[in-house]
Design brief:
This protein is of the alpha/beta class and 288 residues long. It folds into 2 domains: 2-122 and 239-276, Periplasmic binding protein-like II (D-Maltodextrin-Binding Protein, domain 2), CATH 3.40.190.10; 125-228, Periplasmic binding protein-like II (D-Maltodextrin-Binding Protein, domain 2, 3-Layer(aba) Sandwich). It has 10 helices and 12 strands. A 7-stranded mixed beta sheet has the order 1-3-2-4-11-5-12. Strands 8-7-9-6-10 form a 5-stranded mixed beta sheet, sandwiched between helices. Helix 9 (250-261) packs across helix 10 (263-271). Residues 20-40 are annotated as: Disordered.
Length: 288
């Protein structure tokens, strides 16, 4: 089942969007359409979210729809940079949730954010290899071995930026060598537009290894293995969320953000491997 989902992700070239009664997976939000009423006549809230949030946000959508009768949550899951670009192009959206602070800052600078964003979750990176692990990768350092086929997200995607930051950190640590990042990048055979596509290529055996979030491995544990990245070179990815300025569904948008930040929301995030952020502890300390 997980592998089937990953094949679908690999086949898609854009964001994964959800519509209808719950959170389906085809197409994207269309610029210029209203966000307050769904095609079925009910209310809806449109959420643009980083790809790594797919599993917990889909679960939270079910909770939200049960407590808001007649309301549909529609998602557009994609790389954070891609979501910002769609926002700038006028795509209708009520809530944005990204995997880094940089893209949220771009949204703020563009005048798209109605309120101060809050950090609701944190994440870390890990190496992921196919279940068979034919390349025999046993450690993070093995990514630099000649002939290892590595797949990363593009550097303008948060997880791609984080991965390169981790490689540079390792290059400054004893045991890896000052050219560690250079050697790993020389092994990169593909750069993907979001973290789910990195995971899919590894799960399908099209690469020997990739760097993804620990939460992604949890979602695909039947098809891949995880190899820890040491904490002294790892990063902390912080996830901010905000209501979009000009939303046509401000009450629903605020209610969805409230759910994500609630005790119930934090429990769902934790179940899916995220480190939830307690109220009052949403500062940027330690964020990469």
């Amino acid at each position: 089942m997980v592998l089937t989902l990953l094949i679908g992700v690999l086949a898609g070239c854009g964001g994964q969007s959800g519509g209808g009664a719950t959170t389906g997976s085809s197409g994207g939000a269309t610029p210029g359409t209203g966000a307050a009423a769904s095609s079925g006549g009910g209310r809806k809230v449109i959420v643009f979210a980083a790809s790594s949030l797919l599993e917990p946000f889909q679960e939270l959508a079910q909770v939200f729809q049960q407590s808001h009768a007649g309301t549909t949550v529609e998602f557009n899951f994609a790389g954070s940079a891609q979501l910002v670009a769609q926002l700038q192009q006028g795509a209708p959206v009520d809530v944005i949730a990204f995997a880094d602070l940089i893209n949220m800052k771009k949204a703020q600078d563009g005048g798209f954010v109605a309120n101060d964003p809050t950090i609701f979750a944190k994440n870390r990176l890990t190496v992921v290899v196919p279940k068979q692990n034919r390349a025999g990768i046993q450690s993070f350092a093995d990514l630099a071995k000649p002939g290892v086929k590595v797949v990363l997200a593009h550097e303008n995607v948060p997880v791609g930026k984080y991965a390169r930051e981790v490689l540079e950190r390792a290059s400054q640590q004893p045991g890896y060598g000052p050219d560690f990042a250079q050697r790993v990048l020389a092994n990169v055979v593909s750069q993907e537009v979001n973290v789910k596509q990195v995971l899919a290529k590894v799960a399908l055996g099209e690469a020997d290894a990739g760097i993804v979030y620990v939460t992604d491995v949890k979602a695909a544990a039947a098809d891949v293995l995880s190899i820890d990245i040491p904490s002294d070179v790892n990063v902390i990815a912080c996830y901010p969320i905000a209501v979009v300025k000009g939303t046509k569904a401000p009450e629903l948008a605020r209610a969805f953000v409230t759910l994500v930040e609630s005790e119930e929301g934090r429990a769902v995030l934790q179940k899916h491997g995220f480190e939830p952020v307690e109220p009052g502890q949403a500062g940027t300390e330690g964020c990469s």
